[in-house]
Amino acid sequence: MTDEQLNKILAESQPPKPSPALDERVMASYRKIARRPFWLRVFQARIPVPGPVAVLLGGLIAMTLFWKIPQPAMPPPRITVSVPAPVQEAAARPELPQPPLPHVRGAKLAWTPVSHPEWRIVQ
């Protein structure tokens, strides 16, 4: 068979008429759903929401509740202050003897800067 013949047969054919029992079953099912109380229909309703959008909305609601719920006030910290004992006068420290300076012939006791340094490379 060709496509033209199949199209001709399809155009001539008539689908069967629906039975009255089918109409009755569909209407009974609709009446059963429509008769439910409103609150039951609200709680059983389905709203298709993509997963990431649902997670985002849940996070926003959780953050809003977290920031809006008042947190209990922390008690102020207890600070204990003690008065220090009065300072007694310290005895005068004895003078320590100065160590003797090493004696090097021709050495001066004070450091003097060098005006013209000599640079040498030591290997």
Short description:
The chain has 123 residues and is an all-alpha fold. It is 40% helix and 0% strand.
Explain how this protein is built.
- The chain is mostly helical.
- The chain has helices spanning 3-12, 20-34, 38-43, 51-68.
- The protein is built from 4 helices and no strands.
- The longest helix has 18 residues, at 51-68.
- The mean pLDDT is 81.
> What's the assembly state of these chains?
single chain
Please trace the helix and strand order, writing H or E for each element.
HHHH
Shape: elongated
Say how many strands there are: 0
Q: Helix coverage percent of residues? A: 25-40%
Rg for CA atoms: 51 Å
Judged by helices, strands and strand pairing, the structural class is mainly alpha
Distance between the ends = 107 Å
Give the low-confidence spans: none
Largest sheet: none
Average pLDDT for all residues: 81
Note the beta-strand portion.
under 5%
Q: Count of helices?
A: 4
Features:
single chain, 123 residues, mainly alpha, 40% helix, 0% strand, elongated
Helix-strand layout with pairing:
Blueprint: H1 3-12, H2 20-34, H3 38-43, H4 51-68
